[in-house]
Design brief:
It is built from 6 helices and 10 strands. It is of the alpha+beta class and 268 residues long. Among the domains are: 111 residues, Ku70, Chain: A, Domain 2, CATH 2.40.290.10; 74 residues, no CATH class. It has an 8-stranded mixed β-sheet. Strands 3-4 form a two-stranded antiparallel sheet. Belongs to the prokaryotic Ku family. It comes from Paracoccus fontiphilus.
Length: 268
């Protein structure tokens, strides 16, 4: 069954507009999720907000957002005040600028989404915008309300569609110069580089989604399946024994041993 549409709206570039749909490119639907239960009764446990001072439950209609300006001193904001600063249109992706595709560092990328034309009528306008970005090597920048917040987004052509990335806010990204500028600038020896490149060549393989399988999720599903059948809990696997350390401190020797080990693994 096709997933339910996550977002519907319009893609707009100047006077060119087309209806589009948006779907998250990633999902956590297959993740094992747990509820908190009362071990004595087997009933679910529900959470509830309580007043930090009185300990009494707070009614939903009495909840309000507060910004702390001092110890136990808050500026209260109503939902209407917060919503008033959002974009006027929450359903239009209006591309107002373009930047070179390689000018946005990966650290700004947040969540990917698949953007597609919503009907046949809008396919031509969608294709024109997509192909023009591909030819010029640019990506579009816009703003849209997603996940209940106004987000800056990047539109990047990919195959027949467009990938829309939400971008991180400016105060979320740290400057790498604060961390990397203090590192040394010396170049490694040519011999060491040759060995490392050889090690990389022997370890290079085509990408496969199986490389990022989650073994913990698989084990949890096995345990749950066993419990459904009334079987006893599976024995916890013993931790792998740590490889004995040989106190190798010479980089050249370590690399040569690594290449030998990689060669034996490849031959197998």
């Amino acid at each position: 069954m096709a997933p339910r549409t996550f977002w519907k709206g319009y893609l707009k570039l100047s006077l060119v507009t087309c209806p589009v749909t948006l779907m998250p490119a990633t999902t956590e639907g297959e993740k094992v999720r747990f509820h908190t239960l009362n071990a004595r009764t087997g009933n679910r446990v529900v959470s509830q907000y309580v007043d930090a001072e009185t300990g009494r439950p707070v009614r939903e209609e009495d909840e309000v957002k507060g910004y702390e300006r001092g110890e136990n001193d808050y500026v209260m904001l109503e939902d209407e005040e917060i919503e008033a600063v959002a974009l006027e249109s929450t359903r239009t992706i209006d591309i107002d600028m373009f930047v070179p595709a390689n000018s946005i560092a990966w650290v700004w990328y947040d969540r990917p989404h698949f953007l597609m034309p919503a009907d046949e009528v809008g396919q031509e306008a969608f294709a024109v915008i997509r192909d023009a970005m591909e030819v010029t090597g640019t990506v579009g920048i816009s703003r849209v309300v997603m996940y209940r917040r106004e987000r800056a987004v990047m539109l990047k052509p990919r195959d027949k569609g467009i990938v829309l990335w939400t971008l991180r806010y400016g105060d979320e990204v740290r400057d790498d110069a604060d961390y990397f500028d203090a590192l040394g600038t010396e170049k490694p020896e040519a011999k060491l580089m040759t060995l490392v490149r050889k090690l990389i060549d022997e370890s290079t393989t085509p990408w496969d989604a199986g490389m990022v399988d989650d073994p913990v999720q698989a084990r949890l599903k096995d345990i749950i399946a066993a419990k459904k059948k009334g079987k006893k809990r599976a024995a916890r696997p013993k931790p792998r024994a740590a490889a004995p350390e040989d106190n190798v401190i010479d980089i050249m020797t370590a690399l040569k041993k690594s290449i030998q080990a990689e060669g034996r693994r490849s031959s197998r």
